[in-house]
């Protein structure tokens, strides 16, 4: 499949790791250019020269920690919408426990293997919907009837179980019921608009989930849809990420990107459940 000259930036202090991931991408994802950086300084130099479709990084770099790196990418370099994922051999949950690396779009555990890594990277680059979706229960929050109808049709098309709420207040009620201990199938993901009618905005809802309900990034991944103009509001994405969102997708939502992002976050939720069920 043609990728139209997309570029991927790999950041890792290990030359061996960079070589392995570069080889995997070249072998399994054709027409993608791969650049590599062994530290933040090299990464910033490349980011100033090229536009990337995806940035991957290890958690630890020799000259900077991941939180500083992502902050540099999002704030200093004003790269708002390019996905950033962390690739680590640490157990799932360590990022959340240490409250590190805000504004990251996803995490990948190396223990899942090379083929899963290829699939995960490709899901951010793919221009066609994934052939298979990861099952899960989605709570969808959108106050526009027109937008909601179009998005719900996409969710139905790809066989996602979902419940629609028209405002944040109703969504919060659904979430409280879902995680009260009486539900056999609690929600696996929240898909929400950021601008909602009512007393609560999308950011209010996200903050209540993260702080009021105490639900972490892996326990309930959150994908935000926004029509924010990054030029007019350059700090908009940063505010969304800092409120507790896992990922952002711009409106109008494109089917391949929506399904790929949903799959990524549902996989994160699945890994969380596997880890906690094993305890």
Automatic annotation (TrEMBL):
Protein known as: Response regulatory domain-containing protein
SUPFAM superfamilies, from UniProt?
CheY-like
> Sorted alphabetically, which Pfam families does this protein's record hold?
Response_reg
Decide whether keyword Kinase is in the record.
Answer: no
| Protein's UniProt keywords contain Phosphoprotein | yes
From the broadest rank down, the organism's phylogenetic lineage runs: unclassified sequences, metagenomes, ecological metagenomes
InterPro entries to which the protein is assigned, alphabetical? Bact_response_regulator, CheY-like_superfamily, Sig_transdc_resp-reg_receiver
Q: Which organism is it from?
A: hydrothermal vent metagenome
PROSITE patterns in the record? RESPONSE_REGULATORY (PS50110)
Residues in Response regulatory domain copies: 7-125, 137-266
Keyword annotations? Phosphoprotein
What GO biological process, any one, is recorded here?
phosphorelay signal transduction system
């Amino acid at each position: 499949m043609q990728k139209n000259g997309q570029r991927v930036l790999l950041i890792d202090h290990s030359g061996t790791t960079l070589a392995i991931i570069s080889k995997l991408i070249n072998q399994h994802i054709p027409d993608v250019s791969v650049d590599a950086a062994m530290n933040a300084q090299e990464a910033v130099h490349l980011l100033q020269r090229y536009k990337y479709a995806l940035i991957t990084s290890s958690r630890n770099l020799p000259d900077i920690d991941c939180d500083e790196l992502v902050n540099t990418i999002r704030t200093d370099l004003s790269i708002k919408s390019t996905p950033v994922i962390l690739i680590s051999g640490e157990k799932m949950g360590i990022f959340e426990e240490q409250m590190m690396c805000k504004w990251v779009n996803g995490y990948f555990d190396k223990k899942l293997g090379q083929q899963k890594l290829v699939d995960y990277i490709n899901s951010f680059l793919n221009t066609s919907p994934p052939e298979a979706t990861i099952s899960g229960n989605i709570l969808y929050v959108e106050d526009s009837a027109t937008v909601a109808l179009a998005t719900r049709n996409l969710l139905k098309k790809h066989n996602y179980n979902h419940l629609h709420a028209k405002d944040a207040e109703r969504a919060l009620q659904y979430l409280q019921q879902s995680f009260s201990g009486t539900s056999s199938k609690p929600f696996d993901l929240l898909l929400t608009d950021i601008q909602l009618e009512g007393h609560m905005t999308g950011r209010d809802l996200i903050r209540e989930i993260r702080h009021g309900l105490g639900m972490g990034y892996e326990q309930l991944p959150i994908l935000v849809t926004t029509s924010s103009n990054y030029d007019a509001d350059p700090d908009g994405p940063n505010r969304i990420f800092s409120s507790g969102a896992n990922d952002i997708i711009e409106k109008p939502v494109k089917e391949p990107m929506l399904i790929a992002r949903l799959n990524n976050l549902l996989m994160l939720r699945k890994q969380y459940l596997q880890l906690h069920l094993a305890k």
